[in-house]
Specification:
Layout lengths: L10 E4 L2 E7 L17 E4 L1 E2 L7 H4 L4 E9 L8 E6 L5 E6 L2 E7 L5 E4 L9 E9 L10 E5 L5 E5 L8 E2 L3 E6 L4 E11 L2 E10 L2 E7 L5 E6 L2 E6 L13 E9 L2 E10 L4 E4 L2 E4 L2 E2 L2 E5 L13 H14 L3 E3 L7 H10 L2 E5 L29 H18 L5 E8 L8 H15 L5 E5 L16 E5 L11 H19 L3 E5 L18 H17 L3 E7 L29 H11 L3
Parallel strand pairs: 25-26, 25-32, 26-27, 27-28, 28-29, 29-30, 30-31, 31-32
Antiparallel strand pairs: 1-14, 2-3, 2-5, 4-13, 5-10, 6-9, 6-14, 7-8, 7-10, 11-12, 15-16, 16-19, 17-18, 17-20, 20-21, 22-23, 23-24
Helix pairs in contact: 2-3, 4-5, 6-7
Bound molecules: beta-D-glucopyranuronic acid (BDP).
The site of beta-D-glucopyranuronic acid has 9 residues, from loops.
């Protein structure tokens, strides 16, 4: 599914703003067939949970309804009209007046509906979007629902971050010509100094393409729905020095251009060789963070001010990369990374495929993670669909150099290999050009993990000094080094430390190595850095986390997870300067 855009042949109307809002049980049996009876107004984009100061809304499990009136521009006669939802977390149903036009499961990828036959150019219609926040054993991420003694439904899940829900990204109305570009795929390569762009355009008629440089000059062109464009002395997309060309795909009928679609293109290569990951043939070392889409009040709501600020803060630290832990981020984030040369490890929402860690909850669920009594075929199919939708959405982003298909699964358990092997194959089938990885959990050591050999790069999340060897950095240093050397010796693959860190209360200091102090956080990071510098297979370090973030309720969480290098409102803890010194060489 193509990203909607304004072009000479397409128009785009943004439907963000205040929508009428109601919980399912407040609004009657079939709220979508009429006007919602409610006083509540919900901002879009935003998670709804923290907006209303109302526990019933924050803790609601099930459907909520968003509704607004939409006018179709009168100039759209003869055009196809589509509604596109960038994300409905976790399940969405879209109604135009009384008609159901789209349904989608998966909270972090887009979906759309063609509504041409239901609307009139110049006329109005009622757009209603139902959003369900329920996680089940067959959703990605998975979860469980229990009922309390007094009859309330409660959502349980095995991931740390809070289960924010709603319409946290934009909603669009757009026009597209009857015969149009339906998909574009670009893959870049290098032949000496010549850039090679293989393209494929799905369209219902003849196609021609032009590749423009950043000044708008045509550097290559070609007829045909697929082919190769060659760019002598190409300017490469490099980490920290992005350069984007633009592929203009045109659909031509009877000599006239009936549709035109622009796709940014970065020319770069990615390759794993031995224990190195090469971008444009040069070894790349990841410096950066695991992040979250998380801010006060708006939850996971996309916010361009926070987005730019986060990127600038990462740059202030000298970061060159981040991981979209633990779900695909808003497309605007990847566009920004493309334009600014930030390297991205792009992750699915497959977090919590692990019944061995409880996070202090009682689920009543079985202990064996994989198989029909845990996460079986239906979960794997949902996971496969999450991979398909991630790659379909993000395949053309030069910033994305690697797919991470899961975070901290129970990869030490029987059944893990049968579960993951087909998913790794699927990922490679869908994209043969990018390495595939997963983020490994400490319980699955280099001796007990059963899936690491399936992947190109091994990402490790480790908490020596925090969850293990708590407060004892000397032991942490020894154990971390022994483990990394074990991974290096057994697999001979590149290792990226995708999580390491310590919960830290901003402003708390001590001369001793006391947990929760800023001093401990900096000492822990410095301990890990010494080890990374001694182990050649380590090709990257991404601190957990960029900023403090909201979590599920837990006695070990004080208003959320405090492992941020920045507070939730983006003030630096002392660790930020340690990173700036190491990554940027500046005080
Ligand atoms: C890791 C998870 C991450 C958590 C982190 C923590 O991957 O989502 O937030 O631990 O406990 O296991 O801080």
């Amino acid at each position: 599914m193509l990203r909607p855009q304004n072009s000479p042949t397409r128009e785009l109307v943004n439907l963000d703003g205040l929508w009428r809002f109601a919980l399912d049980d407040d609004a009657g049996p079939e709220p979508w067939t009429g006007v919602l009876r409610t006083d509540l107004e919900a901002p879009v984009p935003a998670s709804y949970n923290d907006v209303f100061a109302d526990d019933a809304i924050r803790d609601h499990v099930g459907w909520v309804w968003y509704q607004r009136t939409v006018r179709v521009p009168r100039g759209w006669a003869g055009e196809r009209v589509r509604v596109r939802i960038d994300a409905a977390t976790h399940e969405g149903r879209v109604y135009v007046d009384g008609s159901l036009v789209a349904e989608h499961v998966g909270g972090y990828t887009p979906f759309e509906a063609d509504v041409t036959d239901l609307v009139e150019p110049g006329g109005e219609f009622r757009l209603t979007i139902g959003v369900n926040n329920e996680l089940t054993p067959t959703t990605i991420p998975p979860g469980f629902t229990t009922t309390t003694d007094d009859g309330r439904r409660k959502q349980l899940y095995r991931h740390d971050f809070y289960n924010y829900a709603g319409l946290a990204r934009s909603v669009w109305l757009y026009s597209v010509p009857a015969v149009s570009v339906e998909d574009v795929t670009v893959v870049s390569g290098l032949d000496g100094t010549t850039g090679v762009v293989e393209y494929e355009v799905a369209a219902g008629a003849a196609v021609r393409v032009r590749l423009l440089d950043a000044e708008g000059a045509t550097v290559a062109e070609r007829e045909g729905a697929s082919g190769e464009l060659r760019v002598p002395d190409a300017r490469l997309w490099r980490p920290g020095a992005a350069y984007l060309y633009e592929l203009v795909a045109e659909v031509v009928e009877d000599g006239a251009v009936v549709d035109s679609y622009s796709q940014p293109v970065g020319i770069r290569t990615v390759e794993v060789r031995g224990t190195e990951l090469l971008i444009n043939g040069e070894p790349f070392y990841f410096k950066g963070f695991g992040k979250h889409e998380d801010t006060a009040v708006r939850g996971k709501g996309h916010d361009p001010a926070y987005m730019v600020h986060d990127f600038r803060l990462m740059d202030w630290c000298g970061a060159n990369s981040f991981r979209t832990s633990h779900y695909p981020y808003a497309e605007e984030v990847l566009d920004y990374a493309d334009r600014h040369g930030i390297v991205v490890i792009d992750e699915t929402a497959a977090v919590g495929l692990n019944l061995a860690i409880g996070g202090g909850m009682r689920t009543g669920a079985v202990e064996r993670t994989f198989g029909e009594d845990g996460f079986g075929k239906a979960t794997r199919e949902a996971h496969a669909q999450a991979i398909r939708e991630l790659i379909q959405r993000d395949k053309n982003h030069p910033s994305v150099v690697m797919w991470c298909i899961t975070n901290e699964p129970a990869s030490f358990e029987d059944g893990a290999r049968d579960y993951f092997a087909p998913l790794v194959d699927l990922t490679r089938e869908l994209d043969a050009t990018r390495p595939v990885t997963y983020a490994n959990l400490v319980f699955a050591t280099f001796e007990t993990d059963t899936i690491a050999d399936l992947f190109d790069v091994i990402c490790l999340n480790r908490y020596y000094g925090w969850y293990n060897d708590t407060g004892d950095l000397a032991s942490a240093e020894a154990h971390l080094e022994a483990e990394l050397r074990g991974w290096e010796a057994r697999f001979g693959k590149p290792l990226v430390m995708t999580e390491y860190g310590a919960d830290t209360l901003a402003g708390l200091h001590s001369v001793n190595a006391q947990l929760w102090t800023e001093d401990f956080q900096t000492a822990l990071l410095e301990t890990y850095h010494r080890v990374f510098d001694r182990v050649p297979a380590v090709i990257g370090e991404q601190v957990w986390n960029f900023a403090d973030f909201q979590t599920m309720a837990g006695v070990f969480r004080v208003d959320g997870n405090k492992k941020g290098v920045f507070t939730r409102d983006r003030r630096p803890k002392a660790a930020a300067r340690v990173l700036r010194k190491r990554w940027r060489g500046q005080d």
